[in-house]
Amino acid sequence: MAHLHTRFVGRAICYEESVTSSNEVLKKLADKNAADGTVCVAEEQTGGKGRLARGWFSPKGKGLWFSLLLKPSFLPQEAPKMTLLSAVAVVRAIREVCQVEAQIKWPNDVLLNGKKLVGILTEMSAEFGHINYLVVGIGINVCVPHDMVPEELRPAAISIADAVEGKVDRVALLAKVLDYLESYYDIACREGFGPILDQWRDYSITLGKQVKVIAPDKTYVGTALDIDETGALQVKKEDGTVETVLAGDVSIRPA
Ligand code: BT5
């Protein structure tokens, strides 16, 4: 791929016209011993996946729907931070290539003008306290026409093309995302995730905001204070107590 400056990320690429889900394709390749850094890119996904069995709308030729296979030596409990790392890489690449101020909403969304531009789904295969592999799936709406978006998603979804004039170069954007994924991943493997979490804070739209948290076991409102060293979100509730959110959905409340 032109423009790619990586050592191993994207050096093996599987390009498909149509798949159910690029994460599923890559998991099958991983089971057949595909190389670390293998990427699967699809023009279209017929069964694109979000978290918690939700779907990801992935129409033909209108986005970057792709997944990356990684075989890290860090512990399984570090894996959720790969989602934060990927969001940082995507935001930086979008800002540089498209000149739009994308921001990160904890934990896995990239927003533009308050609407969802990118979704990230990290899946892990691990056993005996060891990661076999991670599959990081990234969906970027590049030029999905607004009237093509299913009606129920329309008010909350956006594409890069909605905010920039002219054509977005999908290949250049993909190459830049892969470049940053590799450089941040190298930092994380060498020095830990600390520097990545600092960069995440700079790109965050969540911190300092009033939020509503829908966690698996409860729902509450509060102020998003910070992320801790595990990547969990700390929320100060109205009664002054601080909750640590490991998983869940967070919506930002209007000021
Ligand atoms: C996500 O889940 O945001 C993770 C999405 C990951 C998609 C990539 S594409 C490549 C790879 N292969 C896959 O099969 N998946 C990954 P979550 O936070 O659960 O958000 C899902 C919700 O986002 C849905 O329930 C919809 O409300 C909304 N949504 C679906 N498609 C969208 C789109 N194209 N743009 C904006 N919002 C969308």
Q: How would you concisely characterize the structure shown here?
A:
With 255 residues, this protein is α+β, with helices and mostly antiparallel strands.
Topology (SSEs and partners):
Blueprint: E1 13-19, H1 22-31, E2 39-45, E3 63-70, H2 80-98, E4 103-105, E5 109-112, E6 115-127, E7 130-141, H3 170-191, H4 194-203, E8 210-214, E9 219-227, E10 233-237, E11 242-245, E12 249-252
Parallel strand pairs: 1-2
Antiparallel strand pairs: 2-3, 3-7, 4-5, 5-6, 6-7, 8-9, 8-12, 9-10, 10-11
The structure holds biotinyl-5-AMP (BT5).
Give structural notes.
By secondary structure, the chain is an alpha+beta fold. 24% of the residues lie in helices and 32% in strands. The protein is built from 4 helices and 12 strands. It has helices at 22-31, 80-98, 170-191, 194-203; strands spanning 13-19, 39-45, 63-70, 103-105, 109-112, 115-127, 130-141, 210-214, 219-227, 233-237, 242-245, 249-252. It has a 7-stranded mixed β-sheet with strand order 1-2-3-7-6-5-4, sandwiched between helices. Strands 11-10-9-8-12 form a 5-stranded antiparallel β-sheet, with no helix packed on it. Helix 1 links the parallel strand 1 (13-19) and strand 2. Helix 2 packs across helix 3 and helix 2 packs across helix 4. The radius of gyration is 18 Å and the shape is globular. It starts with 12 loop residues before the first strand and ends with a strand. It binds biotinyl-5-AMP.
